[in-house]
Amino acid sequence: SPDNFNIPDIAKKDFIIETGDAYGVDAVFKYSHEKTYIWFVYSLGKVTRWDGVQTYAPIFDRRQNINVVATQQFGKEKSWEINIRWNYGSGLPFTQTQGYYHSLDFSQGIGTNITTTNSNDLGIIYAPINKGRLPDYHRFDIAIKKHIKITERSIVNLTASVTNLYNRKNIFYVDRISNEKVYQLPILPSFGVSWTF
Q1: How many CA atoms lie within 13 A of 164 on its CB side?
Q2: What is the pLDDT of residue 107?
Q3: How far apart, in whole angstroms, are the C-alpha atoms of residue 93 and residue 135?
Q4: Distance (Å, whole) CA 78 – CA 20
């Protein structure tokens, strides 16, 4: 309407169209020889978005990422296999908490008496969007496999693995009110059996 055509879309619409840019480069190293396979990838990237008012880094803007994967086969007919994977990622963006305030309950409208209203709710004052960075992420996984050939078309695979072998505490999220930290997977052993026929 003519009354608010000068107001930016971000301040008056439920949905807005954003534009963005993504830049990046990968370096890949592969080595393969008989029973040994090594794969190394380094990625450097940058992603930005423009919402009509500000440019910011979206939550998936991971600047650096490293993956190292290695497989070693051994034993008769390559029946044993060890797989390792190490992954590193620089911290992802998040919006920091700038402060707190006592949130008052105005459900009674204009008749609310602010001198007697008592609420235990905290309001949050947010810093500029995604200006903070979470800690770096890294994890080491290992798996040992045994292939048992029953017939030409029937093979049983036994797999023992450990995820996050050195029990790295990678942040999943932090509760803004209690400051409780919730982490991703702890050290996680597993065992599996598969049968192809």
Answers
A1: 12
A2: 74
A3: 10
A4: 48
Calculate Rg over the CA atoms of the chain: 26
Separation of first and last alpha carbons in the chain = 68
Could you tell me if 94 and 134 are in contact, meaning their C-beta atoms sit under 8 angstroms apart? Answer: yes
Per-10-residue mean pLDDT, the chain, length 197: 78 85 97 96 97 91 97 91 98 94 78 73 91 96 94 93 97 90 95 94
Exposure of 62 by Cβ count < 10 A (0-12 exposed, 13-18 middle, 19+ buried)? buried
Separation between Cα atoms, residue 77 and residue 74, nearest integer Å: 8
Cα dihedral sign for 182, 188, 190, 196? positive
Contacts of 65 (CB under 8 A, 6+ apart): 41, 42, 43, 45, 87, 88, 89, 90
- Alpha-carbon torsion (30, 35, 36, 39), positive or negative: positive
Residue at token pair 């052993």:
189
Query: CA 168, CA 186: separation in Å to the nearest integer?
Result: 7
Question: Angle 186-85-182 (CA atoms, 0-180°, nearest 5)?
Answer: 25
pTM: 0.81
pLDDT at position 74 is 92
